[in-house]
Amino acid sequence: MSKPVLEPVVQAFADATAQPPCLFQIDQAEGRKAVDDVQSGPIDKRPSKRPAKLFAGTANGCPQVPQLRTP
User: Fold this and answer.
1) Count of domains in the chain?
2) What would the mean pLDDT of 31-55 be, rounded to a whole number?
3) How far is CA 53 from CA 4, 10, 56, 59, in A?
4) 38, β-bridge pairs
5) Staple 6 to which of 10, 24, 29, 38, CB 3.0 to 4.6 Å?
6) Would you say 15 and 37 are in contact if contact means Cβ atoms under 8 Å apart?
7) Model confidence pTM above 0.85
8) How confident is the model at residue 63 (pLDDT cuts 50, 70, 90)?
9) Model confidence at 25: pLDDT above 90
10) Residue 40: domain span
11) From CA 61, how far away is CA 7, in angstroms rounded?
């Protein structure tokens, strides 16, 4: 079986998280900090259009959700 080819950023993340301790091996406060650190970086977003049409809420009171489309 061949090794999957990952984008450089993804490969760097996989390499950095491949060594112990794993998330479930550390205490809750340390784990939360680790997750917050990973998710706090900048991200690239494609522009999107928000149409006026909304999906209807359901009978149990769920809110309406806008449908987003990328150009």
Assistant:
1) 1
2) 78
3) 41, 36, 9, 19
4) none
5) 10
6) no
7) no
8) low
9) yes
10) 8-66
11) 42
Residue 45: inside a domain:
yes
- Within a domain: 34: yes
Q: Phi, psi at residue 32, to the nearest 5°?
A: -60, -40
Q: In this prediction, what percent of the chain has a pLDDT beyond 90?
A: 24
Best CA proximity match to 13, nearest among 32, 38, 45: 38
- Asked, for residue 26, whether it belongs to a domain, the answer is yes
Query: 1 in a domain, yes or no?
Result: no
Q: What is the pLDDT of residue 31?
A: 92
The per-residue DSSP string of 13-63 comes to HHHHHSSSPPGGGS-HHHHHHHHHHHHTS-------B--S-EEPPPTT-PP
Lookup: tokens for 59: 């009978």
Contact between residue 52 and residue 64 where contact means Cβ atoms under 8 Å apart: no
